[in-house]
Protein backbone atom coordinates (compact mmCIF):
# COMPACT_ATOMS: atom_id res chain seq x y z
CA UNK A 1 0.00 0.00 0.00
CA UNK A 2 1.16 3.52 -0.63
CA UNK A 3 0.88 6.07 2.16
CA UNK A 4 -2.41 7.53 0.91
CA UNK A 5 -4.01 4.06 0.85
CA UNK A 6 -2.71 3.41 4.35
CA UNK A 7 -4.18 6.67 5.67
CA UNK A 8 -7.54 6.24 3.94
CA UNK A 9 -7.97 2.60 4.95
CA UNK A 10 -6.77 2.71 8.60
CA UNK A 11 -9.49 2.16 11.20
CA UNK A 12 -9.76 1.96 14.98
CA UNK A 13 -10.11 -1.81 15.43
CA UNK A 14 -12.76 -3.16 17.78
CA UNK A 15 -12.30 -6.89 17.28
CA UNK A 16 -8.91 -8.62 17.24
CA UNK A 17 -7.81 -12.12 16.34
CA UNK A 18 -5.91 -13.98 19.05
CA UNK A 19 -2.84 -14.38 16.78
CA UNK A 20 0.25 -12.97 18.50
CA UNK A 21 2.07 -9.97 17.09
CA UNK A 22 5.85 -10.18 17.05
CA UNK A 23 7.49 -7.84 19.55
CA UNK A 24 10.26 -7.36 16.98
CA UNK A 25 7.62 -5.92 14.62
CA UNK A 26 6.21 -3.71 17.34
CA UNK A 27 9.68 -2.42 18.21
CA UNK A 28 10.29 -1.72 14.51
CA UNK A 29 7.06 0.30 14.30
CA UNK A 30 7.99 2.17 17.49
CA UNK A 31 11.38 3.00 15.94
CA UNK A 32 9.62 4.35 12.85
CA UNK A 33 7.19 6.24 15.10
CA UNK A 34 10.13 7.99 16.75
CA UNK A 35 10.73 9.87 13.51
CA UNK A 36 7.73 12.04 14.45
CA UNK A 37 8.28 15.79 14.40
CA UNK A 38 9.08 17.12 17.86
CA UNK A 39 10.04 20.67 18.72
CA UNK A 40 13.68 21.01 19.84
CA UNK A 41 14.09 17.20 19.59
CA UNK A 42 12.53 16.67 23.01
CA UNK A 43 11.44 13.12 22.07
CA UNK A 44 8.90 13.33 24.90
CA UNK A 45 7.27 9.88 24.43
CA UNK A 46 7.58 6.83 26.62
CA UNK A 47 5.93 3.46 26.06
CA UNK A 48 4.68 1.22 28.90
CA UNK A 49 3.83 -2.34 27.83
CA UNK A 50 0.92 -3.65 29.87
CA UNK A 51 0.96 -7.24 31.15
CA UNK A 52 -2.01 -9.36 32.17
CA UNK A 53 -1.99 -8.23 35.82
CA UNK A 54 -2.04 -4.53 34.97
CA UNK A 55 -4.53 -5.12 32.17
CA UNK A 56 -6.92 -6.76 34.65
CA UNK A 57 -6.52 -3.86 37.08
CA UNK A 58 -7.29 -1.35 34.31
CA UNK A 59 -10.60 -3.19 33.86
CA UNK A 60 -11.32 -1.78 30.39
CA UNK A 61 -15.00 -2.36 29.57
CA UNK A 62 -14.10 -4.39 26.43
CA UNK A 63 -10.70 -5.71 27.57
CA UNK A 64 -9.26 -3.85 24.58
CA UNK A 65 -11.39 -5.98 22.23
CA UNK A 66 -9.11 -8.97 22.81
CA UNK A 67 -5.95 -7.32 21.47
CA UNK A 68 -2.93 -9.54 22.14
CA UNK A 69 -0.69 -6.56 22.97
CA UNK A 70 -1.60 -3.51 25.04
CA UNK A 71 0.61 -0.53 25.81
CA UNK A 72 0.33 3.04 27.03
CA UNK A 73 2.06 6.03 25.45
CA UNK A 74 3.06 8.84 27.76
CA UNK A 75 4.23 12.36 27.01
CA UNK A 76 6.71 14.12 29.29
CA UNK A 77 5.86 17.62 30.43
CA UNK A 78 8.11 20.41 29.28
CA UNK A 79 9.74 23.24 31.17
CA UNK A 80 6.86 25.56 30.18
CA UNK A 81 3.16 25.14 29.42
CA UNK A 82 3.90 25.74 25.74
CA UNK A 83 6.57 23.03 25.69
CA UNK A 84 4.20 20.65 27.49
CA UNK A 85 1.56 21.26 24.79
CA UNK A 86 4.18 20.85 22.03
CA UNK A 87 5.30 17.58 23.61
CA UNK A 88 1.74 16.22 23.68
CA UNK A 89 1.31 17.18 20.02
CA UNK A 90 4.60 15.49 19.10
CA UNK A 91 3.58 12.37 21.01
CA UNK A 92 0.27 12.29 19.12
CA UNK A 93 2.35 12.36 15.90
CA UNK A 94 4.44 9.49 17.31
CA UNK A 95 1.24 7.50 17.92
CA UNK A 96 -0.10 8.20 14.43
CA UNK A 97 3.21 7.10 12.88
CA UNK A 98 2.98 3.86 14.86
CA UNK A 99 -0.64 3.29 13.85
CA UNK A 100 0.12 3.83 10.16
CA UNK A 101 3.28 1.69 10.18
CA UNK A 102 1.40 -1.19 11.83
CA UNK A 103 -1.59 -0.82 9.50
CA UNK A 104 0.66 -0.90 6.43
CA UNK A 105 1.68 -4.40 7.56
CA UNK A 106 -1.83 -5.64 8.35
CA UNK A 107 -1.90 -4.94 12.09
CA UNK A 108 -4.52 -2.70 13.64
CA UNK A 109 -4.81 -0.64 16.79
CA UNK A 110 -7.48 0.51 19.20
CA UNK A 111 -6.86 3.87 20.88
CA UNK A 112 -8.39 4.47 24.32
CA UNK A 113 -8.15 7.67 26.36
CA UNK A 114 -8.68 5.77 29.64
CA UNK A 115 -5.18 6.75 30.82
CA UNK A 116 -6.31 10.27 31.68
CA UNK A 117 -8.36 8.96 34.62
CA UNK A 118 -6.43 9.28 37.90
CA UNK A 119 -7.20 5.70 39.00
CA UNK A 120 -5.76 4.37 35.73
CA UNK A 121 -2.73 6.64 36.00
CA UNK A 122 -2.05 5.02 39.37
CA UNK A 123 -2.51 1.50 37.97
CA UNK A 124 -0.05 2.36 35.18
CA UNK A 125 2.42 3.95 37.61
CA UNK A 126 2.50 7.23 35.68
CA UNK A 127 4.94 9.60 37.35
CA UNK A 128 4.22 13.26 37.98
CA UNK A 129 5.12 15.36 35.00
CA UNK A 130 3.67 12.99 32.39
CA UNK A 131 0.40 12.83 30.48
CA UNK A 132 -1.05 9.59 29.12
CA UNK A 133 -1.79 10.20 25.45
CA UNK A 134 -3.50 6.84 25.09
CA UNK A 135 -3.69 3.17 25.91
CA UNK A 136 -3.51 1.02 22.79
CA UNK A 137 -4.59 -2.46 21.87
CA UNK A 138 -2.54 -3.91 19.01
CA UNK A 139 -3.27 -6.98 16.93
CA UNK A 140 -4.53 -8.52 13.72
CA UNK A 141 -8.07 -7.31 12.95
CA UNK A 142 -10.92 -9.80 13.19
CA UNK A 143 -13.02 -7.32 11.24
CA UNK A 144 -12.52 -3.87 9.78
CA UNK A 145 -15.31 -1.36 10.09
CA UNK A 146 -16.45 0.74 7.16
CA UNK A 147 -15.27 4.34 7.32
CA UNK A 148 -17.52 6.84 9.02
CA UNK A 149 -18.62 9.81 6.98
CA UNK A 150 -16.38 12.84 7.39
CA UNK A 151 -17.13 16.52 7.05
CA UNK A 152 -15.91 17.73 3.65
CA UNK A 153 -12.53 19.37 4.17
CA UNK A 154 -13.67 22.53 2.36
CA UNK A 155 -15.95 23.18 5.35
CA UNK A 156 -12.88 23.12 7.63
CA UNK A 157 -10.68 25.49 5.64
CA UNK A 158 -10.41 29.21 6.24
CA UNK A 159 -8.29 31.62 4.22
CA UNK A 160 -6.84 34.58 6.09
CA UNK A 161 -5.71 37.78 4.46
CATH superfamily: NADH Oxidase
In the CATH scheme, the class would be Alpha Beta
Number of strand elements: 4
Helicity range:
25-40%
Structure description:
By secondary structure, the protein is an alpha+beta fold. It has a single domain, classed as 3-Layer(aba) Sandwich (NADH Oxidase). The protein has helices at 3-9, 23-33, 52-58, 81-104, 118-124; strands spanning 45-49, 69-76, 108-112, 130-139. A four-stranded antiparallel beta sheet has the order 1-2-4-3, covered by helices on one side. Helix 2 (23-33) crosses helix 4. The mean pLDDT is 97. It comes from Litchfieldia salsa. This is Nitroreductase. GO terms for molecular function: oxidoreductase activity. InterPro entries: NAD(P)H_nitroreductase, Nitroreductase, Nitroreductase-like. Residues 57-140 form the Nitroreductase domain.
Summarize this structure briefly.
By secondary structure, the chain is of the alpha+beta class.
Task: Give the helices and strands, then pairings.
Blueprint (H helix, E strand, L loop, with lengths): L2 H7 L13 H11 L11 E5 L2 H7 L10 E8 L4 H24 L3 E5 L5 H7 L5 E10 L22
Antiparallel strand pairs: 1-2, 2-4, 3-4
Amino acid sequence: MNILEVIYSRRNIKSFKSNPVSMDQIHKWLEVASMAPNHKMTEPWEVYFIGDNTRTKLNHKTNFFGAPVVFAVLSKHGATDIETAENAQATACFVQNFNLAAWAEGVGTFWSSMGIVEKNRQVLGVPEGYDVIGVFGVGYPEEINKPKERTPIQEKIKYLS
